[in-house]
Amino acid sequence: MTRIVTIGAAQLGPIQREHTREQVVTRLIALLRQAHSAGCDLVVFPELALTTFFPRWFVENISETDHYYETEMPSPVTAPLFDEAKKLGIGFCLGYAELTQSGERFNTQILVEKNGSVVAKYRKVHIPGHEEHEPDRAFQHAERYYFTPSNEGFGVWKAFGSRVGMMICNDRRWPESYRVMGLQGVELILCGYNTPIHYIPDPSQDILQGFHNALVMQSGAYQNGTWVVGVAKAGVEEGVDSLGQSMIVAPSGQIVAQALTTDDELLVAHCDMDWCQKYTKTLFDFDRYRRPEVYTRITAQRGVELD
Ligand code: CDT
Description:
Blueprint: E1 4-11, H1 21-37, E2 42-44, H2 79-88, E3 91-99, E4 105-112, E5 118-123, H3 143-146, E6 156-159, E7 162-168, H4 175-182, E8 188-193, H5 209-224, E9 227-232, E10 235-237, E11 240-242, E12 247-249, E13 255-258, E14 265-272, H6 277-280, H7 286-289, H8 297-300
Parallel strand pairs: 1-2, 2-3, 7-8, 8-9
Antiparallel strand pairs: 1-14, 3-4, 4-5, 6-7, 9-12, 10-11, 12-13
Helix pairs in contact: 1-2, 4-5
């Protein structure tokens, strides 16, 4: 049996500070059309895909950055993307900064079906970086200042003839993200990311960024028998070099498509959702083999506890 979903991973090159939303949406639509020509059912765009990665700067008054956030989706500026996708009959997943009516700020990803209906909104759970200005850094990673961590967790939704979950960037480094979705029978996880290659707290990790990126998504896919689509905003953005290497990973853990550039680039893979069962019905038959009674520490405590 096969259940094919043709997926486009639409990596973006850098978005500089002076680039307008209109210019970015034009780039997204170009990738969307390319994906449509390649027969894609779904296109996945990166985290914070509409603007430069603004948490690299710190401002004392956070409201000065309101223009980086979306207060509605679609908005007048993003409506052409929604309209074009609906006209082409192609779904998409888009990351953006969200400012709610009550003033909360989330790092958000939305999933839209081929008929234009919004399937779900996911808000980032694991917010990395720091809350305060760290003036000695070459650049900030102040996501913890700009975004509230979501308490909504990791959902799985029926869409595209499969069971789809979402996560955002740093979420991909945590096995719990995948497992919570694995326990809901996820078959396809969509993940946008912005990963600076220079990791200021420990520069010895810089050379390992590509390895760690692949390591976490390949193991997450394999251990949960799911497809994982990881999509970067890549290249040198405002002087900060960010990892590309967007990839589509099969439930076997194998990479079936990977970006070759750090520019706007579309990867396409024909993903058979029935491949998931080769893993979830055998080696990772959770019902048969998992031992939740001995995993209680995982939800009972946050950090390491020494005796
Ligand atoms: N955007 C995002 O979550 N980036 C982090 C960077 C490392 S923490 C400073 C990541 O996990 O890729």
